Amino acid sequence: MKGIFCFVKNKQNKFAYLLIGSIFAKKFTAMTTRENIIDKADQFIRNKGYNAFSFKDISNDIGIKTASIHYHFPTKSDLGVATIKEHIARYEVLKKKVANESPLIKLESFLAVHTQIKHENKVCIVGSLATDLNTLDESIKDELKIFAKLVIEWLTEVLTEGKEQNIFEFQTSARTKALMIITNMVAIVQLSRLTNDDDFELVRETILTELRPKK
User: Fold this and answer.
1) Which residues contact 173 (CB under 8 A, 6 or more apart)?
2) Among 119, 102, 103, 143, CA closest to 24
3) Are 43 and 17 in contact, with CB atoms under 8 Å apart?
4) What is the chain's pLDDT, residue by residue, as a tens digit (215 residues)?
5) Is the pTM above the cut of 0.70?
6) What does the DSSP 8-state code read for residue 7?
7) What is the C-alpha separation between 157 and 178, in angstroms, rounded?
8) Cα end-to-end distance, the chain, whole Å
């Protein structure tokens, strides 16, 4: 699920990150049956919740028999794990794509993921599945923990790198700051649905502003 990232400099010689498409955007090229099932499950999970759909719903939506779904995913938990693995794979692609960019570009690419989620009027899969956590099988919980660990550790590394290069300034530990940024972005995607879309951009810009070194 590849997309296009474009980086430009503004008049103040600061990087402005423009997201054109995204590796997190919907895939428009032909998908296999397995990919199509995962894509539809992802939509249901993030729009309705994990417990609010069945294989029958997927079957009706994409026009295949439930037996075809069971062929690829014997249980709903298998499908849930595969869906999370898809998000993990996309994040790994993102990490590689910006590996040689500055810490600021890396941070902006992380924020752009949530901008894409907001643009699609969805919620992040971690936030969606977390609401059903007590009813999920251990296999899904374990995969979700792997995904959360990946995001937290990557953002922690980005912040550490940025602080060492005097690009970022913050008083807490890098991991604590990463947790604060992640929770702010996950929350504002949902909260701005009830308040104002401008609130999303306000939180995003505040995160960047507060990280800038004080003169």
Assistant:
1) none
2) 119
3) no
4) 333 333 333 332 233 344 324 444 555 567 899 999 999 999 999 999 999 999 999 999 999 999 999 999 999 999 999 999 999 999 999 999 999 999 999 999 999 999 989 988 888 999 899 888 899 999 999 999 999 999 999 999 999 999 999 999 999 999 999 999 999 999 999 999 999 889 999 999 999 999 999 87
5) yes
6) E
7) 9
8) 41
